[in-house]
Amino acid sequence: MRAITQDSYGAPEEVMVLRDVDRPVPGEREVLVRVHAAPVSGTDWHLARGLPYVARPITGWRRPRSRIPGYDLAGTVVQAGPAVATLRPGDQVYGWAAGTFAEYVAVPEKQLAPIPANLTLEQAAAVPIAAFTALQAIRDGAGLRPGGTGDPRPAGTAPRVLITGASGGVGTYAVQFAKAYGAHVTGMCRTSKIDLVAGLGADEVVDYTSTPLRDLGRRFDVLIDLYGNPSLDGCSRVLVPGGTIVYVGGTGGRWFMGTDRWLRGMALAPLRRLRTRPVIHSDSRDDLATITGMIESGAVRPVLDRTFPLAQAAEAIRYVTAGEVRGQAVLRCAD
Ligand SMILES: NC(=O)c1ccc[n+]([C@@H]2O[C@H](COP(=O)([O-])OP(=O)(O)OC[C@H]3O[C@@H](n4cnc5c(N)ncnc54)[C@H](OP(=O)(O)O)[C@@H]3O)[C@@H](O)[C@H]2O)c1
Question: What total number of domains does the chain contain?
């Protein structure tokens, strides 16, 4: 089968090579999936270069631990291991697995679910990890619940949530989950994507190129920090006393990529009467079921910008890091 392989760290166009490799054989509780599509994101650009360095014990010291990049997928089951109970050849599934920039991948049954009935396989590929991260930021980080029941303030007062990076892979879901969970949502993005974020249901959209965070001039209950890692001074200016910073994105620095600012913020926020909630997404079958339900009910939808053939993985990663992508881009792995 064809797969993108990577034997060293570096710029994607230098280290990602399309090769013929052995097709994986599914284990007892695994299925072999023909990968229809796999998403690319800015995280793939960092991982290709082995950044941040502090993550190398997990990602691999000198070379990537997983030779084939890619962490989520949508595709068709072609073979099921003998102990697989819920999936059969022909099922269209989505979920997470290492090595999805390939025509086939063997995936534990428990990491897959049927794709939402109202999505194509390409749209479904743009869901799992971006949506996990957004759901967990809104529900577990911000403490919002469907109908706003997690909000301790009087009924009828919607929590005011500010989301930076609202036009990106994670942000487009975060806006929709926050709205579905009863928040008043303000999203920040560049000028050309204001229509996109407004179309996802944001109550207000701020163009960060003309109004940076420090000039917002109003306060929120929650900041979902997907871009920028603002200082505590910056956060104090946009949050009410007792407000919450939900750290999700990391910006800047090859060693820590912003996580050092998370730690400083977590240590010092109580002195500013602010709360902090770091979110490192966890892959969760239960959350995939929640997300499937919300997509099928129309509360949430993926934003798919464009697709690339598998051979153009490096170009796709460059495209998403160049800033023009609206939502997400996916690779067509089994064209
Ligand atoms: N904690 C976790 O488990 C987890 C999981 C997944 C991702 N992440 C992190 O979450 C962050 C967002 O991921 P993503 O996949 O959504 O990234 P993405 O698709 O590349 O989106 C990046 C977002 O940042 C905004 N942005 C870029 N430059 C900016 C600037 N100069 N000022 C203000 N905003 C700017 C973009 O807005 P415009 O496009 O409108 O300019 C876009 O909305 C990344 O840092 C990623 O590493 C964390």
Answer: 2
